[in-house]
Write a structure and sequence with these properties.
By secondary structure, this protein is an all-alpha fold. The protein has helices spanning 3-26, 30-43, 48-71, 75-88, 93-104. 83% of the residues lie in helices and 0% in strands. The model has no long low-confidence stretch (mean pLDDT 95).
């Protein structure tokens, strides 16, 4: 296979993995999204779309974990999860509100 043909095949697979990742992300399938975005990042390591997808996965999972911890009255886990979400999206309103709510748990 010529290098150009390999590059074209890699780009097509990269785009397929991004589509899979975005679909999984929209469905809240964090593991599936993570796997797809990681596969895309291996194919084109310098491209930002896969990196942003992985950041969105970490953020979404952290919010979900934080909300679950609040319903379970697990203050420490909720605080940690919302802080993790804020690391991915500094200043994010949902994560800030969740963190404030978590800090009020007894």
């Amino acid at each position: 296979i010529l290098a150009r043909d390999r590059d074209i095949m890699n780009k097509a697979e990269y785009e397929r993995q991004l589509r899979l990742g975005n679909r999984a992300l929209a469905a809240g399938n964090w593991a599936g999204a993570r796997a797809a975005f990681q596969a895309a990042a291996k194919l084109l390591p310098d491209d930002l779309a896969a990196k942003e997808g992985l950041r969105a996965v970490r953020y979404g999972k952290a919010l979900e974990d934080g909300n679950r911890a609040i319903t379970q009255k697990n203050r420490a886990a909720a605080i940690a999860a919302f802080q993790a979400a804020l690391e991915e999206r500094p200043g994010d309103l949902k994560a800030r509100q969740g963190l404030e709510l978590a800090k009020k748990l007894k």
